[in-house]
Here is the input.
Amino acid sequence: MKRFIACCSLCMITLFAVLPVCAQEDSTEVEDYSMFADATEVKRYTTQKVLNLSAAKLLSAGLEWNSNSGLPVTNQSTNQVRNYTIKPLWMPRILLNFPVVSNDKLIVNLGGQYWGSPYSITAATGSLQSPVDAVDANMMHSMGVAVSIFKPLNEKRFLILVAGADLNTSFPSGQSLQGKAITISASAIYGLKTSERNMWGIGASRTYRLGRLIHVPVLLWNKTFNDKWGVEMVLPAKGFVRRNFSSQSLLLAGFELEGNQYLIPNGFNNGDLFLQRGEIKPRLQWERQLKNFIWLSTQVGARINGRFNFTDQYNGKDADDLFRTSLKTALYFNISLNLVSP
Here is the structure.
């Protein structure tokens, strides 16, 4: 009996000594952290912004004022000249730009714009008849739609594609819309984002920004040097130095090219003409947050003539000009209320 009790005691002691070891071994087998490892590597993509970049406008409604300016007009076939004066004018401007696809792999924006120019022009000297009289009698309208695509290729490289169509005409009474009032523009840029403060790219553009169809190389550069200073450029279309005062206020100093080709039905001697209008606008632009995503924007600068000539040829060249002008520089002021993206 004593031997039986001793054997049982020895078995119990051995069992309690072995159980913790077995439990520890079982626990180690259960906690296999390799089960939690990623099965595949996650691909990352770059974004379309750098730090402190001015906010993209989703909706903008504003008015632009131009001071009066002289407008000498020359008939290219007879060299006759007549001097006109463009009175000060207010021009309405509306911009829409909303994302229709937005994810890590693709961003697609659909936009629209309207720009009205209610010219009031008086003749100072001379008796030359010119298309300027038709411009004075009918407000010039420019309205269009555009689609822009930002396609990240990986963590650094990206593509930007932009295409747009504009309807530009004076809409005289009794006239129907015509296809030759439409102009088509497009741009393509291949770029590299080297950091959250710097991105650049090169490409090409088909544009009417100086009033006539041209094909030009494009340089994109968005750079934030520090918390206060940066640059925002899409050359040759526009280029600005940026000064950030805070997250709610910034100042831009630089220039922008604007313009298009306008159809003027029965513009001269009962024939259709085209006004090729382009402007160079050096300016200061102040952006200020009012509340949440609502911002106020003001611009002050000069409107320098790039082209304000008349031709009877769609996409006419210099040799096709019927009337040329020497539109004088004017001061301009723009104010707009904007809904910006987060």
Summary: The two ends are 87 Å apart (CA to CA).
